[in-house]
Amino acid sequence: MGRATHRPERVVLVVDDDAGVRGFVAVVLHTEGYRVLTAVHGAEALECIARQRPDLVLLDLAMPVMDGWQVRWALRAQGVHVPLIFMSAGHNARIEAERHGAHGYLAKPFTAAELLTTVTRFVSTLSS
């Protein structure tokens, strides 16, 4: 993996209850120059977003405490607009993500290349 052409100050919040997924995503994005924040569940993600608004949130859909759907609705209710890319192993999650206004979707398991393609494609629209 080489350095991407995005602006390195971009902040990505990774929200997943699976430590392996969080770690994998964090390492891949950090290697590419992103600043990475992590949260274990949706409630922690909302606290993190309140402290520092990320440029992008990679959000697992199935988590304890507060799942990805609940985070999406809580942000909407608060009037907070943060770009979301949903991550899920569910076979209908892509359709649901599109229906609920997600900016993107990653089907688990995904590769480093798939992750970077999705994140880079989205971040490049922020720079335009």
Strand content: 15-25%
Order of helices and strands: EHEHEHEHEH
Q: What CATH architecture do you see?
A: 3-Layer(aba) Sandwich
Structural class: alpha/beta
What is the CATH top level name? Alpha Beta
Fraction of residues in helix: 40-55%
Q: Looking across the biggest beta sheet, what order are the strands in?
A: 2-1-3-4-5
Shape call: globular
Oligomer: single chain
Largest sheet: 5 strands, parallel
Number of domains: 1
CATH topology: Rossmann fold
Whole-angstrom Rg: 13 Å
Report the count of strand segments. 5
Mean pLDDT: 87
CATH homologous superfamily title:
Response regulator
Task: Report the total helices.
Answer: 5
What does this structure look like?
The protein has one domain: Response regulator (Rossmann fold). Helix content is 45%, strand content 19%. The chain has five helices and five strands; from the N terminus they run βαβαβαβαβα. The N terminus is likely disordered.
Summarize the structure.
This protein is an alpha/beta fold and 128 residues long. The protein has five helices and five strands; from the N terminus they run E-H-E-H-E-H-E-H-E-H. Helix 1 links the parallel strand 1 and strand 2 (35-39).
Secondary structure elements and their pairing?
Blueprint: E1 11-15, H1 19-31, E2 35-39, H2 42-51, E3 56-60, H3 68-78, E4 84-88, H4 93-99, E5 104-107, H5 112-127
Parallel strand pairs: 1-2, 1-3, 3-4, 4-5
